[in-house]
Amino acid sequence: MKNKFVVALLIIGGIVLLNIAASFVFFRLDLTEEKRYSLSDATQSLLENLSAEDSTDVFVKVYLDGEELPGGFERLKRAVTETLEEFKVYGGTNINYKFINPNAETDKKKREEFYVELAKKGMNPTRVVDTKNGRQIENIIFPYALVSAGGYEVPVLLLKGTQGKTAEEKLNQSNENVEYELATAIRKLTLKERKKIGLLAEFTKLKPLNFSDLIASLQERYDLFIINAKSSPTFQGLDAVILPKPDFPVDDSTKYKIDQFVMSGGSALFFVDGLKVDSVGLEGNFAQPLELNLTDLFFKYGVRINSNIIKDGASCAVIPLVVGDLGDKPNIQPVPYRYFPLINNFGKSLITNNLDLVFSRYVASIDTVRADGVKKTPLLMTSPYTKTLNAPAFVTFNDAQTDTEQTEYQGGVKTIAYLLEGKFQSLYKNRLLPNDPKFADFKAESQPTKIIVCSDGDLIVNEVSQKTGNPLPLGYDKATQHTFGNKDFVMNAIDYLIDEDGVIQAKGKEVKLRPLDKLRTRDERTFWQILNIGLPVALVLIFGFILQWARRRNYGTT
């Protein structure tokens, strides 16, 4: 008995010492295969810095709540809860949250007023029809969170997935994005030091109104400067430069500044067209070569934009087109237009992970060329069913009314955007003489940096409403009234280029779907039910029998 008493004291003492040690040493273990309950290092750092500043308090209101949430949304709610709990672990008292049921108000008028209030803040409801007890029930769900800090607030859409995916896959993508979306909102509200981005807009015919959504989105996260490239002596001091849809050739002086900016470790994003498309009438457009004085620069960095236009026979947007007469009026119907590919084929990158379809217009193919020390990652790709037209080419609208012939579209997958990473060689290496004034500061090889080249200048252009004259959201398609993933692509790209260790790393989280085998669950249902119910009971009985037998043997009791 004395030995047993000593053992018991040692066990209790060990537990006490373990708890004391745990109060000084913080650690958490995530035993899941994909580390679904772990936060990225960047998110942890963001939250810990909040804790260091007592004045920074973040409050999150989650409107994804209710007693009758469908199963998929209940899992999404659980993912949000688990993520916010992890946020509190690292953010401490500076992070607080609350779940609010938008349908809790019993008074219909007050409930609808609350809906309107949420809509004014940019949070629109999702209507979901669910089957329960053999009856169809329509649920009004607000898959949003409202993150507030420092007197400002940002709505966060929690339900984000790729068009064409099943409902289950979209919800799974949303689960993967929860940490990134919430962390991005917190970063936007609490960021003290902002990166600097330059927009080289003097080479385009478009007005600032056509880039208004891009400009507004950039200004929320970064310090944005509209650069006069020709008069600026250098681009140093910026973290990245963007060349948006140039229509005029880039002068040699600006090209040299871009090259030396990259050599100094700066990042660059090029959204340029392969061909110039001009309207020639109601029948179509005429595409001809577009000389931008950038071919040699891109070639040196490892890519070549071809002078062609891609037709995608399997994935394309629709345009309103007159297909006949309806009485005495023209019959206008949405018709697939193969010159406007909808990009649903993405390379493996944090930039494109869980990205919605990207809307493109008159895109060219990009080929890679040798560039030692440069890693080339395709980001945006067409479907395999493509056909290319080389310049000059007549782009007809009547083409939209013809059926896609598989034998005609055998061009294979075409890439329209590349991520280039590594050490780049200067285009002007071995070109400058020692007596040239530029020679003293010239850099022949870059520091490790990143570049993105996209062969669609329209990808970052927002349309303008003909009725109101106001800009439409970037990626908005008037024919389908759907906003595609263009803005997410651009913002993800910039985050990746200039904030490599930032919250963009959270987009690498993967939550794997592990569906049950439907045939086995049908054929072996009884077996697994008996196993799951009977095995725990059998184990308890066996353990009790062994314990009773051991007691009889040691103490001779009956």
UniProtKB/TrEMBL annotation:
The ABC-type uncharacterised transport system domain, residue ranges: 194-493
Presence of the UniProt keyword Amino-acid biosynthesis in the record: no
Residue ranges crossing the lipid bilayer per the database entry: 527-547
Protein name: Gliding motility-associated ABC transporter substrate-binding protein GldG
Record's keyword annotation contains Ribosomal protein: no
Keywords: Membrane, Transmembrane, Transmembrane helix
Source organism superkingdom: Bacteria
Residues in DUF7088 domain copies: 33-148
Organism: Emticicia aquatilis
